Amino acid sequence: MASVVQWIQGTRPRTLPNSIAPVVVGAAAAHHIDEFNVLYTVLALIVSVAFQVGVNYANDYSDGIRGTDDNRVGPFRLTGSGAAEASKVRLAAFISLGVGAVAGVVLVVLSGYWWLLGFGAVCMLGAWFYTGGKRPYGYAGLGEIAVFLFFGPAAVLGTLYVQTGEITGIGIGASIAMGSISAAVLVANNLRDIPTDAVSGKRTLAVVLGDKDTRRLYLALVAVPFLIALGMTVRVPYALLGFLAAPVLLPAVRRVAAGRGGRDLIPVLQFTGIAMLAWAVLVSAGLVLD
User: Fold this and answer.
1) More confident of the two residues 2 and 226
2) Residue 101 contacts by C-beta under 8 Å, 6 or more apart in sequence?
3) pLDDT value of position 255
4) Could you tell me how far CA 83 lies from the centroid of its own chain?
5) Could you tell me which of 3, 66, 182, 221 has the fewest CB atoms within 10 Å of its CB?
6) Which tens digits make up the pLDDT trace of 110-142?
7) For residue 175, how many C-alpha atoms fall within 13 Å in the half-sphere facing its CB?
8) What is this structure's pTM?
9) Nearest CA-CA partner of 33 in 153, 167, 158, 152
10) What helix, strand, coil percent values describe the chain, rounded to 5?
């Protein structure tokens, strides 16, 4: 029987900034046009984090029953390690997605934007079929695109729109920044797993590109938020605060650029995630100060 600590590990805490940061910056974009709503932001955060946890448990379950995690060098896996029954991990995924769905329905009812129910349904299906089903799109090199869309435009602009009823240029820029660095987290994860994924038949984008080009992709993606911050200064000079997140990212960049592999790449996920959250908080502070 898996311990409480192992179940927490199964949520993959290092990846949770992917779901927190977009909501933070989306709420700040709403505040920038004087439309910030605390309750809507909290509900959006619950939706985002619950879906993220649901995706992580679903990924654990699906990869585990396929044998993809049998020889993985990455973080602890509940199903692959045998610490928890596959059915219980699947149930945890469904419960997490259910919590997100309930919070999403409440948010839709309060805001009155009923069409967002369809949007939420698409997000739930995307969460499950990333590695679930007979033809998971995460096994076809489409994971990074999905992460960019769900944790970029969907999370940022969704948080902004539900509070304001509109999409702003600042919101679009922030959504591209969040989507890019969120995708970089997955790229780093898949870079580490190229050897085992290739053997198990998991054809990620990293497997398709190969080691060298995957590293180049990671470096390009993590540069995007800083280019966006620079562009934002045309309207929001305080957006330069986002550059204070660069030192947090530097250890990850060094490991990837130096050609490190295996377990040496595990901290890259954490550094990238923290840098993403730091960028979101700092740029959000800039939007509030503007």
Assistant:
1) 226
2) 120, 124
3) 95
4) 25
5) 3
6) 999 999 999 889 988 888 888 787 888 878 888
7) 22
8) 0.91
9) 167
10) 80, 0, 20
Whether 280 shows a pLDDT value over 90: the answer reads yes
Q: Which residue has the tokens 């990837």?
A: 256
CA dist 263 and 43 (Å) reads 36
Question: Angle CA(6)–CA(189)–CA(173) in degrees, nearest 5?
Answer: 110
The amino acid at residue 255 is R
Contact call for residues 197 and 190 (beta carbons, < 8 A) = yes
Tokens for 8, please give them: 């927490």
Contacts of 109 (CB under 8 A, 6+ apart): none
CA-to-CA separations, 286 to 104, 249, 278, in angstroms, rounded = 28, 19, 12
Higher pLDDT, 278 or 200: 278
Please provide the DSSP assignment of 21-62 as one string.
HHHHHHHHHHHHTT---HHHHHHHHHHHHHHHHHHHHHHHHH
In the 8-state DSSP scheme, what is residue 242? G
**Mean of the pLDDT values across residues 183-195?**
91
Which structure tokens are listed for 206? Answer: 């990293």
The backbone torsions φ and ψ at residue 186, rounded to the nearest 5 degrees and listed phi first, read -70, -40
pLDDT per residue as tens digits for the range 47-97: 999 999 999 999 889 888 877 665 666 677 888 888 889 899 999 999 999
DSSP state of 157: I
Residue 223 to residue 226: CA distance in whole angstroms: 6
- Alpha helix positions (H), 169-245: 169-192, 194-200, 205-209, 211-232
**Over pLDDT 90: what percentage of the chain?**
66
